[in-house]
Write a structure and sequence with these properties.
By secondary structure, this protein is an alpha/beta fold. It is built from 11 helices and 12 strands. Helix 1 runs parallel beside helix 11 and helix 4 crosses helix 6. It is elongated. The structure holds 2-keto-D-gluconic acid. Belongs to the D-isomer specific 2-hydroxyacid dehydrogenase family.
């Protein structure tokens, strides 16, 4: 009998094909995520449950003596999984680091360039037939060359964003991180980074420790010419404060791939011209998503073969 595996969302075909060879795979290909009750029930009917950022896997979902002894997370961020509850229940949890570093860093750079050069605004104008003529002052943006980029969270993705910005745009890098990392000047506080930088890109994990890390005060330090890029988690920024700062011109612009309550994006953000928005696409590259799925498959293979689980967090 093949172990029973649940995929909470649809995965790239090569990953599903690989898993189907060795496992009895069920997948949720509906457009909506599974509810907590469905996830809890799945923990008792499957040998492994594979989840994504859209699944809230709390202490009400994970329970002692559940059938699934492994939860494979398709993604690096695990703020949606209660790791303490998993530990208490003796359930393994794995994630997918490294393989999405470049894709996510590229997304941060995409948003940065797009917000700096107002390309989304220009496209919206063109598509609604409002581009009347070329003039020397039409849709003037800002250059990134020689500006200062602040990185909050100098982990793998933060370092890669810094590297690209430094090598491609000669940006000066300042960062806030608990420990010293290569690739820039480490500053003592988030506030110092917000004050020194022209552009700030967020790369800290989500969860209680970073909830509302960037609020009205920090945004004001970044200032009317400043730009905020977020490809980390929406909860890291106080979203109402961000909206107010953008509306009042206290913050120049923003590039956002993540939101506090996805897939909900506040109407106030959607109507602002000085914001570039993306629906959580950081790792949305074919090769990356396949690599992520294969990494979860590797973890399941190791688990069922009784080997050490790669990328095991719990
Ligand atoms: C993933 C992400 O696509 O890996 C992460 O933490 O935020 C995204 O890049 C998403 O989480 C899929 O679960």
């Amino acid at each position: 009998m093949k172990p029973k595996v649940l995929l909470s969302r649809k995965w790239p075909a090569p990953c599903e094909e690989r898993l189907s060879r060795d496992y009895d795979v069920t997948l949720n290909d509906a457009d909506v995520a599974l509810s907590a009750a469905e996830l809890r029930a799945a923990m008792d009917s499957y040998d492994a449950v594979c989840v994504t950022v859209t699944d809230t896997v709390g202490a009400d979902v994970i329970h002692k003596n559940q059938r699934a002894r492994i939860i494979g997370n398709f993604g690096v961020g695990v703020n949606h999984i209660d790791l303490d509850a998993a530990k208490a229940a003796g359930v393994a949890v794995s994630n997918t680091p490294d393989v999405l570093t470049e894709a996510t860093a590229d997304m941060a750079i995409t948003l940065m360039l797009s917000a700096a050069r107002r390309s989304s605004e220009g496209e919206r104008q063109l598509r609604r037939g409002a581009w009347e003529s070329w003039t020397p002052t039409h849709l003037l943006g800002r250059g990134l060359r020689g500006k200062t980029l602040g990185i909050i969270g100098m982990g793998r993705i933060g370092q890669e964003v810094a590297r690209i910005a430094q090598t491609a745009f000669s940006m000066k890098i300042v960062y806030y991180n608990r420990s010293e990392k290569p690739g820039g000047e480490r500053l003592g506080t988030v506030a110092e980074v917000m004050e020194r930088a022209d552009v700030v890109s967020l790369h800290v994990p989500g969860g209680a420790g970073t909830d509302g890390l960037i609020g009205a005060e920090e945004l004001a330090l970044l200032g009317p010419e400043g730009m905020l890029i977020n490809t980390a988690r929406g909860t890291v920024v106080d979203e109402p404060a961000l909206i107010a700062a953008l509306q009042e011109g206290k913050l120049g612009s923003a590039g956002l791939d993540v939101f506090a309550q996805e897939p909900h994006v506040p109407e106030e953000l959607r109507v602002l011209e000085n914001v570039v928005l993306a629906p959580h696409m950081g790792s949305a590259v074919v090769e990356t998503r396949v690599a992520m799925g294969m990494m979860v498959a590797d973890a399941l293979d190791a688990h069922f073969a009784g080997r050490e689980i790669p990328n095991r967090l719990v």
